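Example 382.
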Amino acid sequence: MLMGLPVDVIGGGVAGLAVATALAQRGAKVQVLERAPEISEVGAGLQISPNGAAVLAALGQGDALREAGIVSHAVELRDFRAGQTVLRLDLSRHNTGPHPFVLIHRARLIGILEAAAREAGVEISLSRHITGGDGRSGGIVLGADGVHSWMRSELNGAAEPFFTGQVAWRALIEDRGAPPEAHVYMGPGRHLVTYPLAGGLRNIVAVEERSEWTAEGWNHEDDPANLRAAFAGFAPEVRGWLDRVTKANLWGLFRHPVAARWHSDSKAILGDAAHPTLPFLAQGANMALEDAWVLADCLAHRPPPDALALYQARRRDRVVRVIEAANANARNYHLRNPAVRGLAHAALRVGGAIAPGAALRRFAWLYDYDVTDGAKSAMHSE
Ligand SMILES: Cc1cc2nc3c(=O)[nH]c(=O)nc-3n(C[C@H](O)[C@H](O)[C@H](O)COP(=O)(O)OP(=O)(O)OC[C@H]3O[C@@H](n4cnc5c(N)ncnc54)[C@H](O)[C@@H]3O)c2cc1C
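Predicted structure in complex with flavin-adenine dinucleotide:
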């Protein structure tokens, strides 16, 4: 169905490059139109979980992912002040399977996807800011243009994304010898996630609740002193890392509800364009990868109008569930009342001691799901 089909993909981020690769590998004639003058990414890390790693493996990039990243052994939730472990999620079961948890620099992931896209024959056009138009005749246009997507507005009516009341600093420091694990320090109204990246780097994402976001853009460079002040009450190791931050970017976290309409007969949106996902479950890029695979799979098996409707049907409920789980994490990480926080952490400690694997098993629906598995995809297709 895809052989020679013209497809224009707007946006060269994770979603755009992944769907372009998946379509071109199946014979479509794909061009990516990216507004930036080069394919690049702000310096920061990403956690790719097994459900996202499965898509990269199906695109032929499983080895590249492992080589460019660090296989993560665990996620630890920690108390903000003492830094004590509240709950440890041991990821070794996943890492002995085909699709590991990987900690990777965003630029490296984008580099892997860009190389895969070019190898599959995708044409990448830079400095192309697309805000309308119908694409090539008889073809498909895909909006992978992120949270401010114009195609989302075209399909759903104009609606500005809203500020969620949270901001996130992202920073990288040099730090060798850190264990291959992600650590989440949970404090009142704020939390900090940190993990190592290849090349002797440590990634830091620090989220704080705020009533307002007044900056003109949604992302700008901030004085690292503000980051240090916001997390001054955190454990000594956290303060030590923050003391070494020389450059920090601050993001207002914006959302809009999951789009009601993801497609017309010849257009579709994917990734953050369809469903901006807060970073509290580290799933935005993973969902973008899953979307990309399912969209290409649907187009490979059905004519476009049916394929695009099937794509939305196969994706929407799962994405809504992921976003709700991420929102719940935000609430649970940021408990303000010390008594409530103490009880919640005690319950997690006891639960982790009695049944160490139980907390991770509760997320089997998320991490064990493989959109590239034909049998499972068929199951979800009707
Ligand atoms: C602090 C933070 C931490 C995160 N951590 C994780 C994590 O650990 N794991 C995870 O899975 N996710 C994480 N995410 C989420 C993840 O970054 C996003 O969900 C993911 O990047 C979405 O990919 P995308 O391709 O849909 O959109 P984007 O990455 O936003 O890409 C959109 C692309 O489209 C281009 N573009 C936009 N408009 C136009 C236009 N009009 N014309 C042409 N091009 C255009 C842009 O330049 C950009 O290249 C995090 C997010 C944040 C903010």
